[in-house]
Amino acid sequence: MRIHLKVWRQAGPDKPGRLVDYTAADVSAEMSFLEMLDVVNEGLIARGEDPIAFDSDCREGICGTCGFMISGIPHGPDPGTTVCQLHMRRFKDGDTLTLEPWRARAFPVVKDLVVDRSAFDRIIQAGGYTSFNTGGAQDANSILVAKTTVDAAMDSASCIACGACVAACKNASAALFTSAKISHLSLLPQGQVERYRRVVKMVERHDDEGFGSCSNEGECEAVCPKEIRITDIARMNREYFKAMLVKRD
Ligand code: SF4
Ligand code: FES
User: Fold this and answer.
1) CA distance 107 to 115
2) Helix orientation angle between 195-208 and 231-248, rounded to the nearest 10 degrees
3) What pLDDT sits at residue 190?
4) Residue range 106-126, pLDDT digits in tens
5) Whose CA is nearest to atom 8 of ligand 1?
6) Of ligand 1's atoms, which has the minimum distance to the CA of residue 232?
7) Does the pTM exceed 0.85?
């Protein structure tokens, strides 16, 4: 296959960027999308040019490091799929694809397709943890949790902090990410001690980082590679409301 690429090239955070045309020749249908970019980069390096910067680590959909826009869709056209899990068999010979970084004020571009997602780390630092002296590991059967609750907490905990939800949202809201992190702790007994402090601190941090408010568009849910549901956002809003009542009392 021959794939035409229009890639956002930006040398640094304060440098102007532009779309640059490349052609990926001899692309195998079995290649992953990132392997195709690796081959393009080998060609650029061989010609003495700067390779296209993009993030990746696990390349199996679990670390959340990769992610950019492919023709306007975060992580590309396959639902429930990170860009590292996307394969070239999804595309046709002669296709033209536009690759751009996440676009959000809270995710400044570092270089080309790489953005700074440390705002997510700061939201977690604000409250996405439990703090107590654990001592020795408890017998797993000593804290009974209903199966439906465990399943819901696990679903929320599967968020990999990739940032696609922010990129898809017209408000650049990180409500889906923040609510997933709040949900998986607020659902479990271990997360109860700091439950209301947590939601207030994390929501405040979210806003302070420059993410927008959720206006219930659902774009985040549509592109999330881990299929986190916007019911988590509803849960976060309920938790925040309850926290306000607890504070008032
Ligand atoms: S909620 Fe989904 S899209 Fe958003 S950061 Fe988590 S895994 Fe990525
Ligand atoms: S590289 Fe880890 S999720 Fe894509």
Assistant:
1) 6
2) 110
3) 87
4) 999 999 999 999 999 999 999
5) 162
6) 1
7) yes
